[in-house]
Specification:
Helix 2 crosses helix 5 and helix 3 runs parallel beside helix 4. The chain is globular. It is built from 12 helices and 9 strands. A 9-stranded mixed sheet has the order 1-7-8-9-6-5-2-3-4, with helices on both faces. The longest helix is centred in the N-terminal third of the chain and has 31 residues. The chain starts with 8 loop residues before the first helix and ends in a 7-residue tail after the last helix. The protein is about 40% helix and about 15% strand. It has a domain of about 35 residues.
């Protein structure tokens, strides 16, 4: 039985009408946010008062916002990128995994971290145009005792382990390549303000601590660090704007601040999409949230800041770039990150080349998984061990004829 697309026509028509109405309402809210951004662009007193009042009246469990990192540029700044530095080494990592399958012959999971070392510009002592270097770090994990079996039922724990390996290996690469050039930039394909969900509280706390330790390790190498988030859904700056205008609105429910309902579905991407021309970035902001306080308590230099950027060569395409305080405090470092990110995006479809290559290197496909399972079977049989997939899995393989669920 295949999907009967004709039975969805009426639903799709209704979906289009509803979406059009939502977009029309959003345009009006965006105009209000743009007006507030322009009106209070350098009114730092109003910003401070709004943040103070929001902290008092907002729900501490929900309240998330942004504050300007400094008063150097106005809130609505649109900053052009300079030419990239003549030399730099750009590092990136990404991860992929094969999750445990209780229907498989043997229980295991695999984490594969892939990465790239990109030599930007001339490299002293190595000549010009050195080709990129890619690498992979695979790890096979299997239960060594019966007590460990429960771990293989928690996908959240495995995802956290993959994330931690990504930044840990990135820190190792930053140390190894610390002398390759005067400027080393380490890039992650995710936010820097790491706060995992889907595991137990103790495990999450340990993960946040480990993540912060890897950030500190990168700092010690002298490298710069950033996290790149394509098409972000964050609402920190629009929440700040809502806080400022709510000061004079007696009907506003401050307990909604930090939620989509509090900003009526508007996102920072909407706000800066209307502001930033191709290649431009916003001013730098700081996350206002308990998780960021935790980062700063562990290491003040790790407090996470961010700016928005339009990486498109034409048109609108907004991304967020997270940077730690140690980068944000150095104007030259922020400029270098901005310039190198834009330069990378010009190499490959308005998205950083190093991140696309890191993903390509890390990804584990269905064919890889099949070949790994075959390899496991061969080695197990060599040791006199024999097992088979469950009857359920076997029947699915026959019925689907090679087709699989979309993942």
């Amino acid at each position: 039985m295949t999907l009967e697309f004709e039975r969805l026509t009426a639903d799709l028509e209704q979906m289009a009408l509803t979406t059009a109405r939502r977009y029309e309402l959003r345009r009006g809210r965006l105009e209000e946010a743009q007006a507030a951004l322009k009106e209070y662009r350098t009114n730092w007193t109003a910003v401070d008062n709004a943040l103070t009042l929001a902290a008092k009246r907002g729900d501490p469990k929900l309240y998330r916002s942004a504050r300007p990192f400094d008063e150097t540029e106005p809130l609505d700044a649109a900053i052009d990128p300079p030419a990239p530095p003549p030399q730099a080494t750009i590092l990136a990592t990404d991860g992929s995994q094969i999750m445990p399958d209780r229907h498989a012959a043997y229980l295991y999971y695999l984490i594969n971290v892939g990465g790239i070392v990109y030599h930007h510009g001339d490299s002293p002592g190595h000549g010009e145009n050195r080709p990129p270097e890619t690498f992979t770090v695979p790890q096979l994990v299997y239960p060594e005792t019966e007590d460990e079996l429960d771990k293989f039922n928690r996908s959240g724990t495995i995802s956290i382990e993959r994330d931690l390996q990504e930044i840990d290996i990135l820190s190792q690469q930053a140390f190894y390549h610390r002398n390759d050039s005067e400027l080393v930039l380490a890039v992650l394909d995710q936010r820097l303000l790491y706060w995992p969900i889907g595991s137990e509280g103790v495990a999450e706390n340990a993960a946040v601590t480990a993540w912060g330790e890897s950030m500190t390790d990168i700092h010690r190498t002298g490298a710069l660090l950033c996290g790149y988030i394509d098409r972000p859904g964050s609402i920190g700056v629009v929440t700040l704007m809502k806080s400022i205008t709510a000061v004079s609105d007696p009907t506003f429910n401050w307990r909604l601040l930090g939620t989509q309902k509090g900003v009526q579905g508007l996102t920072d991407r909407d706000l800066f999409g209307a502001l930033l021309a191709p290649s431009q970035r916003s001013k730098v902001f700081v996350y206002v949230s308990p998780p960021n306080n935790t980062f700063a308590e562990q290491d003040p230099a790790n407090e996470v800041c961010f700016f928005y950027v339009n990486p498109a060569s034409s048109g609108q395409q907004i991304a967020r770039v997270d940077i730690p305080r140690w980068v944000a405090e150095d104007e030259g470092a922020v400029t270098a990150v901005h310039a190198l990110i834009i330069d990378q995006c010009r190499l490959l479809g308005d998205y950083p080349y190093v991140l696309a290559r890191a993903d390509e290197t890390a990804v584990v496909g269905r064919q890889d998984a099949s070949e790994l399972n075959f390899m496991i079977d061969v080695i197990m049989e060599r040791h006199g061990l024999h097992a088979a997939v469950t009857a359920k899995q076997g029947s699915k393989d026959i019925a689907r004829g090679g087709r699989t669920r979309f993942k």
